[in-house]
């Protein structure tokens, strides 16, 4: 890199913060050059005013570093916020155009990058990474980025590197650790306008100590700095708030509701008492002790905030705020799925909406224009400042009003937008920072919608908006150079806040106003005086030597660490007391995610029985904490105690979380980056759809001349399409064919013919020897001789077509026979095994559908074998891990790679029959080579799924040839990822590792009667009926893993039944017609899906007799009579849970089923089509399907018998319905798939719209279907997206069908 005479890297395009962004190159000013040169000599924190051009200093420093480091090192530029990250990345890209500069923030979904491969790919060729502090800290903590790979770190807004902030952790956990160990560390450059908040030398030293850098400000060219920094004029505006004489009915009524609340009616209290789990009992105890619940606290804070709003902003503000919040919460209760409070429990929304309906609300406040009587003196003063300092014209006013709270921002924005004077002058926008409430359970009074601010800053920059109301998010670094007016509606929280806010007004002649209550006049802060004192701390000439000594002392001394720490040896990822709770929470969110279950860890604290004497008065007692993980985590890992006792709950919980996470690491439930195993590690990898494979194996190379010298003669009988014999001839082939062959072919004229081939000695009906010999030869040099009594040209063409098809089939037979030698040996008929293998390796181009049926069967076999393998190999994995791991093994991409690794691809039969490649030759010169046609030796190109399907088909062939033993043996040979001695051994391991046996509760004993099966280990039955929310799940586990197994068992049994019944074989006394391969898959999908299995859980029931005692006469003493009737208890009612959500959903589901039961049962019993619409309207929840699958899985583990599971599916009605589908030809194709077929290549688009919710919470859902650009169907009145899409698809199919008929 070239350096100019000023020591500046040549060719830099500078960005001048004071004057905005210029496309033309800007010469670095003297003070910027001074700071750049200092940054080269040592680590420094550049302290300069906002708008002075600190970013240019950083750009110069970055270019200097790029010139001296190798390509393996990177530079990280860190910002505090996502918006700053985006802005600074754009700035650096303008200034440094010769290298790749990229931003990394939550907008890039960096949190989802959970593999080294992803990080390496993202950082490939990137020389400068611009990121938020948290992104780099997490990447270092997870071992994806190493400190040794970084040449320079630039900390923008470096004053934030204090305490336990991400910037501080980067330095303390990684920089100083590596530096202390003698490993290379990056250079440091900090940028700030105010390094500390208080006049305290210790704070400044702590920042410098953390960053290993000295704070520096320009000295030699200070006047040059002051010349270019345009500080606004500071004005302190005082206002006087008069006590509000008006008593607002809204606030009064709300305070009365809060004061009269009965905590016993609170939904949290009711739920915790109902659940009666350890977790709920702990929460109940704390709530009753503190009188705090979620709803109660929300209402209290809302009330206090409204009272403060009334005082600070005026009566209209309070009325608007209350009306807005109450309308939102009432709407959220009536529209459960559409609400800004969606993350709240529905019961909490209902309860709070009922309370807020009692608030006296003035609905006119939502649109009322502010007046001097309805706004406070503070707002009135703000309005006067804005009006008096408005500048007209294109280059007019651009202002920012800073407030503290988000709720204040929304209300003030509303008042300013409707103000009769201001609305004519200003176009107002609102900006807040990201908040945990945007992602989690938001506060009741937080009515700001973050989606509304996505383009506000850009609109402010380009002048579409000229006034912003903002929180502290706009204080730091956001570049709006045209701003000329800043107003602190709420006083700055600190000197740093004062300096940062002032720095937003950069335009010449700008003004900065701070509003102060007149009662605080005597306590008003001298902001500028404090700023000068702060500057004096880092502006002394005698500091350099002292700082150097401090740095040296630090390098030679041991640095304090925070309690325990674990460093992963391969990646360097760190687990410590500070990040353990966060890591544990993320793990549970990934691995324990279940609807209707508490998916987060919770902590219980216990004081030690034997307490040591207190060291001082008021000292807290020692306690230990235990952390309990969600029930979907294996029960052996669910509970972990802290290693030692602590005097604070915070430290005790950190200790317990650390110990729990170490147990997860030891159990291999987190990876080497200390992150939950991701779908990339467990699941399917995306790869291109096509692949080149080797040319087809040539079996004729094995039939050498010596073997061809002993040809085999066969008799060929030709028949027409009706089976009428035409004539016979002899054919001589180079190898023995084995059993008699028969096949179909087409003549040269396209006529269908059939041929039957048998050995010569087996057909004595030929009266005379054929007299004429005809020879044929193909492009591979393969020859065949035929002998016939008659030899017309048409006969020779017919014989050629027949003989070529024979050799085509013979080649496939020999290829399959060769592959058989490379597969494990199978007991049974050799010819049958070869035929199965031949079918398995045949591709669609050969028009032989049997391979697709074997692939259908093999797919189910592979899924069951892989399921048992993962369940036995990883007994501690939660169901989500198991599902993702299985998906990886059975995915097309993995099976394709396995087929290539085991050299299966040369045996794939991809060539169709072509009689024209054979030509008639002179029988006497048949061996001449000059008649050969060169064959293209190039590789073949096929879809990945073709190889994958062949592997599955071979597994299906193995199942047909030798049962489950052969299917497993061939699976292990072909796939390699399934390490299972046998299906029974795996099943037995699952039986042994399941929970210790326990008595079956009496109320669950009915399930054994319903199932017609008595469990040997009752704990399996209990587990199958236990939801993850149930309080006793920690003793024996929940149903998740059994459901994972049961799903594969059901699919295997249904697939084998379809395979058998579709071939016309007898099964259970019934036989079915042959079924196409595509229909087999569709039938299976109709029976093995969540909606149908959920229907089974509702329909399959046990009946109990109920007796009512009724009074027969008028006398209270009788007489009485008994009335007996039957009550159905479906399987889903036996599900044990402690979830109010499951209770509510179960009740709603049974109500829906009562309405739909008759028509659904009729459709199942006799309908011509599968009831897709009824299933969608029913909308059975996943837990219904889970209990069916889990029960089947439990029977399999307990019995070791697929026949027992088959009997269970028979009792459930699954297999009887399957037989009816096959027997009656029930149409099981989904309406959306029917529409896809009818539309052909045209694009289909579904537009779903949800109407307003009714009082019961139901919504009117409508759907419009487009095929291409044409509307083909419209439906409304539905209750769910799925329902209206199915209705619309069916309607669209009818429309397209009628349109096609009309056009014909």
TrEMBL record:
Keywords: Antiviral defense, Antiviral protein, ATP-binding, Coiled coil, Helicase, Hydrolase, Nucleotide-binding, Repeat, RNA-binding
Ranges of biased composition (kind: Basic and acidic residues): 552-567
Start and end residues of each Dicer dsRNA-binding fold domain: 580-684
Domain Helicase ATP-binding: 35-213
PROSITE patterns: DICER_DSRBF (PS51327), HELICASE_ATP_BIND_1 (PS51192), HELICASE_CTER (PS51194), RNASE_3_1 (PS00517), RNASE_3_2 (PS50142)
Coiled-coil regions listed in the entry: 1139-1166
Keyword Cell membrane: no
Annotated ranges, domain RNase III: 851-963, 1004-1200
SMART domains: DEXDc, HELICc, RIBOc
GO CC annotations, alphabetized: cytoplasm; nucleus
Residue ranges constituting the Helicase C-terminal domain according to the UniProt record: 378-546
One Gene Ontology term of the molecular function aspect: RNA binding
GO biological processes: defense response to virus; regulation of defense response to virus; siRNA processing
InterPro entries in the cross-refs: DEAD/DEAH_box_helicase_dom, Dicer_dimer_sf, Dicer_dimerisation, Helicase_ATP-bd, Helicase_C-like, P-loop_NTPase, RNase_III_dom, RNase_III_sf
Pfam families, alphabetized: DEAD, Dicer_dimer, Helicase_C, Ribonucleas_3_3, Ribonuclease_3
Source domain of life: Eukaryota
Protein family per UniProt: Belongs to the helicase family. Dicer subfamily.
Protein name: Dicer-like protein 2
Originating organism: Lasiosphaeria ovina
UniProt lineage: Eukaryota, Fungi, Dikarya, Ascomycota, Pezizomycotina
């Amino acid at each position: 890199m070239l350096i100019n005479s000023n020591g500046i890297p040549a060719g830099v395009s500078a960005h001048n913060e004071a004057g905005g962004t210029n496309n033309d190159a800007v010469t670095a000013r003297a003070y910027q050059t001074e700071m750049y040169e200092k940054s080269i000599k040592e680590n420094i924190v550049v302290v300069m005013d906002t708008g002075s051009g600190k970013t240019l200093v950083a750009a110069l420093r970055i270019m200097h570093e790029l010139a001296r480091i190798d390509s393996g090192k990177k530079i990280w530029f860190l910002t505090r916020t996502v918006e700053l990250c985006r802005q600074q990345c754009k700035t650096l890209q303008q200034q440094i155009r010769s290298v790749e500069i990229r931003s990394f923030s939550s907008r890039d979904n960096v949190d989802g990058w959970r593999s080294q491969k992803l990080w390496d790919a993202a950082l490939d060729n990137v020389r400068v990474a611009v990121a938020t502090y948290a992104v780099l800290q997490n990447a270092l903590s997870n071992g994806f980025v190493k400190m040794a790979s970084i040449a320079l770190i630039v900390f923008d807004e470096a004053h934030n590197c204090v305490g336990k902030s991400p910037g501080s952790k980067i330095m303390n956990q990684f920089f100083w650790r590596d530096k202390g160990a003698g490993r290379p560390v990056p250079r440091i450059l900090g940028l700030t306008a105010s390094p500390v908040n208080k006049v305290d030398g210790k704070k400044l030293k702590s920042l410098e100590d953390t960053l290993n850098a000295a704070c520096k400000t320009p000295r030699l060219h200070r006047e040059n700095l002051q010349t270019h920094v345009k500080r606004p004029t500071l004005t302190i505006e005082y206002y006087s708030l008069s006590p509000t004489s008006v008593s607002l009915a809204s606030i009064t009524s709300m305070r009365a509701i809060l004061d009269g609340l009965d905590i016993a009616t609170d939904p949290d209290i009711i739920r915790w008492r109902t659940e009666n789990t350890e977790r709920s009992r702990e929460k109940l105890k704390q709530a009753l002790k503190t009188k705090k619940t979620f709803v109660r606290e929300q209402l209290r804070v809302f009330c206090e905030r409204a009272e403060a709003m009334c005082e600070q902003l005026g009566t209209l503000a309070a009325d608007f705020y209350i009306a807005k919040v109450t309308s939102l919460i009432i709407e959220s209760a009536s529209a459960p799925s559409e609400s800004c409070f969606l993350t709240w429990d529905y019961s909490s929304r209902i309860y709070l909406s009922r309370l807020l309906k009692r608030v006296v609300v003035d609905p006119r406040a939502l649109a009322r224009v502010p007046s001097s009587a309805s706004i406070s003196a503070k707002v009135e003063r703000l309005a006067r400042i804005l009006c008096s300092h408005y500048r007209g014209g294109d280059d007019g006013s651009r202002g920012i009003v800073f407030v503290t709270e988000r709720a204040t921002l929304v209300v003030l924005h509303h008042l300013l937008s409707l103000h009769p004077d201001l609305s004519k002058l200003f176009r107002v926008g609102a900006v807040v920072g990201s908040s945990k409430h945007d992602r989690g359970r938001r506060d009741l009074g937080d009515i700001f919608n973050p989606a509304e601010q996505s383009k506000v800053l850009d609109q402010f920059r380009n002048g579409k908006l000229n006034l912003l109301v903002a929180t502290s998010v706009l204080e730091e670094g956001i570049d709006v150079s045209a701003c000329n007016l800043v107003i602190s509606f709420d006083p700055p929280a600190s000197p740093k806040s004062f300096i940062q806010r002032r720095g937003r007004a950069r335009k010449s002649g700008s003004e900065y106003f701070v509003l102060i209550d007149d009662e605080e006049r005597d306590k008003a802060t001298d902001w500028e005086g404090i700023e000068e004192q702060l500057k004096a701390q880092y502006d002394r000439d005698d500091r350099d030597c002292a700082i150097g000594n401090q740095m040296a002392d630090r390098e030679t001394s041991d640095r304090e660490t925070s309690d325990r720490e674990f460093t992963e040896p391969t990646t360097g990822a760190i687990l410590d007391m500070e990040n353990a709770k966060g890591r544990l929470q993320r793990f549970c969110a990934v691995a324990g995610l279940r609807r209707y279950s508490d998916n987060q860890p919770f902590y219980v604290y216990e004081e030690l029985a034997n307490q040591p004497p207190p060291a001082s008065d008021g000292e807290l007692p020692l306690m230990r904490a235990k952390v309990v993980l969600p029930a979907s985590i294996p029960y052996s890992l669910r509970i972990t105690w802290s290693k030692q006792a602590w005097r604070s709950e915070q430290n005790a919980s950190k200790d317990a979380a650390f110990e729990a996470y170490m147990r997860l690491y030891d159990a291999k439930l987190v990876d080497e980056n200390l992150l939950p195993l991701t779908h990339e590690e467990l699941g399917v990898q995306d790869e291109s759809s096509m692949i080149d494979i080797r040319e087809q194996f040539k079996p004729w190379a094995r039939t050498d001349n010596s073997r061809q010298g002993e040809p085999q003669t066969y008799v060929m009988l030709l028949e027409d399409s009706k089976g009428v014999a035409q004539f016979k001839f002899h054919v001589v082939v180079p190898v023995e064919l084995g059993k008699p062959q028969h096949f179909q072919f087409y003549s040269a004229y396209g006529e269908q013919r059939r041929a039957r081939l048998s050995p010569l000695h087996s057909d004595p009906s030929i009266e005379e020897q054929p007299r004429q010999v005809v020879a044929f030869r193909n492009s591979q040099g393969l020859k065949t001789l035929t002998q016939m009594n008659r030899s017309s040209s048409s006969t020779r063409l017919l014989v050629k077509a027949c003989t070529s098809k024979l050799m085509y089939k013979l080649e496939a037979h020999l290829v399959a026979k060769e592959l058989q030698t490379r597969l494990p040996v199978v007991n049974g008929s050799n010819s049958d095994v070869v035929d199965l293998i031949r079918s398995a390796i045949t591709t669609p181009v050969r028009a032989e559908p049997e391979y697709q049926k074997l692939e259908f069967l093999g797919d189910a076999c592979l899924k069951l074998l892989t399921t048992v393998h993962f369940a036995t190999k990883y007994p501690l994995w939660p169901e989500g891990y198991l599902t993702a791991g299985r998906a990886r093994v059975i995915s097309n991409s993995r099976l394709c790679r396995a087929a290539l690794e085991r050299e299966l691809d040369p045996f794939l039969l991809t060539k169709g029959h072509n009689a024209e490649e054979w030509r008639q030759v002179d029988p006497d010169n048949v061996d001449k080579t000059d008649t050969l046609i060169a064959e293209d030796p190039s590789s073949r190109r096929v879809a990945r799924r073709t190889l994958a399907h062949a592997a599955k088909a071979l597994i299906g062939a193995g199942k047909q040839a030798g049962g489950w033993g052969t299917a497993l043996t061939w699976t292990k040979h072909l796939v390699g990822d399934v390490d299972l001695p046998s299906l029974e051994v795996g099943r037995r391991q699952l039986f042994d590792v399941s929970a210790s046996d326990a008595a079956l509760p009496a109320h669950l004993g009915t399930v054994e009667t319903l199932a017609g099966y008595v469990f040997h280990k009752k704990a399996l039955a209990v587990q199958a009926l236990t939801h993850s929310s149930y309080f006793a799940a920690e003793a024996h586990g929940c149903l998740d893993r059994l459901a994972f197994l049961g799903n594969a068992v059901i699919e295997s049994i249904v697939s084998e039944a379809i395979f058998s019944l579709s071939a016309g074989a007898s099964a259970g006394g019934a036989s079915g017609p042959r079924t196409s391969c595509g229909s087999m898959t569709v039938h299976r999908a109709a029976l093995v899906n969540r909606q149908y299995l959920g229907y089974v859980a509702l329909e399959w029931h046990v009946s109990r007799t109920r007796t009512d005692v009724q009074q027969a006469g008028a006398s209270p003493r009788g007489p009485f009579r008994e009335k007996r009737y039957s009550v159905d208890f479906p399987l889903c009612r036996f599900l044990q849970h402690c979830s109010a959500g499951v209770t509510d959903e179960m009740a709603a589901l049974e109500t829906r089923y009562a309405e739909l039961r008759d028509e659904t049962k009729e459709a199942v019993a006799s309908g011509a089509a599968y009831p897709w619409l009824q299933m969608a309207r029913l909308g059975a929840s996943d837990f219904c399907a889970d209990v069916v699958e889990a029960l089947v899985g439990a029977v399999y583990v307990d019995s070791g018998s697929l026949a027992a599971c088959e009997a269970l599916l028979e009792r459930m009605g699954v297999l009887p319905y399957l037989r009816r589908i096959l027997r009656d030809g029930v149409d099981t194709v989904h309406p959306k798939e029917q529409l896809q077929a009818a539309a052909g290549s045209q694009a289909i688009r579904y537009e779903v719209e949800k109407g307003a919710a009714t009082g019961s919470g139901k919504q009117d859902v409508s759907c419009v279907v487009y095929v291409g650009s044409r509307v083909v169907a419209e439906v409304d009145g539905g209750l769910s997206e799925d329902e209206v899409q199915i209705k619309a698809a069916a309607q669209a199919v009818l429309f397209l069908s009628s349109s096609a008929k009309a056009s014909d």
